[in-house]
Design brief:
- It catalyses: dTMP + ATP = dTDP + ADP.
- Keywords: ATP-binding, Kinase, Nucleotide biosynthesis, Nucleotide-binding, Transferase.
- Pfam families: Thymidylate_kin (PF02223).
- InterPro entries: P-loop_NTPase, Thymidylate_kin-like_dom, Thymidylate_kin_CS, Thymidylate_kinase.
- Belongs to the thymidylate kinase family.
- This protein has a five-stranded parallel β-sheet, sandwiched between helices.
- The chain has one domain: Rossmann fold.
- It is α/β, with parallel strands linked by helices.
- 56% of the residues lie in helices and 13% in strands.
- The relative contact order is 0.20.
- The protein binds adenosine-5'-triphosphate and ligand LXEULUCI.
- The site of adenosine-5'-triphosphate has 14 residues, from helix 1, helix 6 and helix 8.
- Adenosine-5'-triphosphate binds next to helix 1, helix 6 and helix 8.
Length: 214
C-alpha cells in the first residue's frame, strides 16, 4: 500500500509537460512536499536504454506491437525500481508520461486498440495507477509549432510521423480522458507557463485535500 502520491503528466508533443514539470515540482516543494520528478520512457538506466531503442529515428522497421511492448517493459522496470520505492517512502512522484501515452499513441494512433494496450500494460503495472493525471491540452498544430521553434530539441522517431498520426494521438487522448474522467484533469496548455503552473498546482492541492494526503 503506497503512502505517497502518484501524479502523471500527459499530452501530445510540445504541450509543455517537461517545462511545466520543473515549475510544478518547485511549487510543490515550496509548499513542503518531497517531490521526485521522473519520466517515461526512461528515468532509470534500463528504461533509458529501451527509450533509445524505441525512439531511434533509424528504427523505421519497428512493428507497432513491439513498440507497445517496449514501452510497457520500460514502464515495468521504472515502476519497480524507482516509482514504487518512492511512493512507499511517502514521496510525491511526478512522472512525465505514463500508461495514458500508450493508450493514446499505441492504442489509438497506431490502431492496436485502447483495450488491447490497456490489457498488455496490466502485466507491467499490476494495477498501480496514478492518483491524479494532468492532461496538457493543446492542438497538434500548436504543439508541433512549439517544437519546431525549439531548435535544440532532439528529433525522435515519433516526432517524424505525419500530421495525421498526431491528429490521431490527440483524438486518442480525448477518448482516454472520457474513459478516466475522474482521474484525468484537463489543463489548458495553450496558456502561459505561469498560468499553466498555477492551474496545475490548484488542481493538485485540491486533490491532496480531498484524498487527505499531507
Ligand atoms: N506555456 C508555454 N507557452 C509557450 N511555450 C511553451 C510553453 N511551455 C513550453 N513551451 C515551449 O514549448 C516547447 C515544448 O515544450 P516541452 O518540451 O516542455 O513539451 P513536452 O510536452 O514535454 O513535449 P514532448 O512530449 O514532445 O517532449 C519548448 O520549446 C518549451 O520551451
Ligand atoms: C510513455 C510513452 C511515450 N510515447 C511517445 C510519446 C513521445 O513521442 C515519445 C517520448 O518522448 P518525450 O519527449 O519524452 O515526450 O514517446 C508513446 O508513444 N507511448 C508511451 O507509452
Amino acid at each position: 500500500m503506497s503512502k505517497g502520491y502518484f501524479i502523471t503528466l500527459e499530452g501530445p508533443e510540445g504541450a509543455g509537460k517537461t517545462t511545466a514539470a520543473v515549475e510544478i515540482k518547485r511549487e510543490l516543494e515550496a509548499l513542503g512536499y518531497d517531490v521526485m520528478l521522473t519520466r517515461e520512457p526512461g528515468g532509470i538506466k534500463i528504461a533509458e536504454k529501451i527509450r533509445e531503442v524505441i525512439l531511434d529515428p533509424s528504427h523505421t522497421e519497428m512493428d507497432s506491437r513491439t513498440e507497445a511492448l517496449l514501452y510497457a517493459a520500460a514502464r515495468r522496470q521504472h515502476l519497480a525500481e524507482k516509482v514504487r520505492p518512492a511512493l512507499e517512502a511517502g514521496r510525491v512522484v511526478l512522472c512525465d508520461r505514463f500508461i495514458d501515452s500508450s493508450l493514446a499513441y499505441q492504442g489509438h494512433a497506431r490502431g492496436l486498440g485502447i483495450d488491447e494496450v490497456w490489457s498488455i500494460n496490466q502485466f507491467a503495472i499490476e494495477s498501480m495507477m496514478p492518483d491524479c493525471t494532468l492532461y496538457f491540452d493543446i492542438t497538434p498544430a500548436d504543439g508541433l509549432k512549439r517544437i519546431e521553434q525549439n531548435a535544440g530539441r532532439e528529433v525522435n522517431r515519433l516526432d517524424l510521423e505525419g500530421m495525421a498520426f498526431h491528429e490521431k494521438v490527440y483524438e486518442g487522448y480525448q477518448l482516454v480522458q472520457a474513459r478516466f474522467s475522474e482521474r484525468i484533469q484537463r489543463i489548458d496548455a495553450a496558456q502561459t507557463l505561469e498560468k499553466v503552473t498555477e492551474d496545475a498546482i490548484s488542481v493538485l492541492t485540491d486533490h491532496f485535500k480531498k484524498s487527505g494526503f499531507q
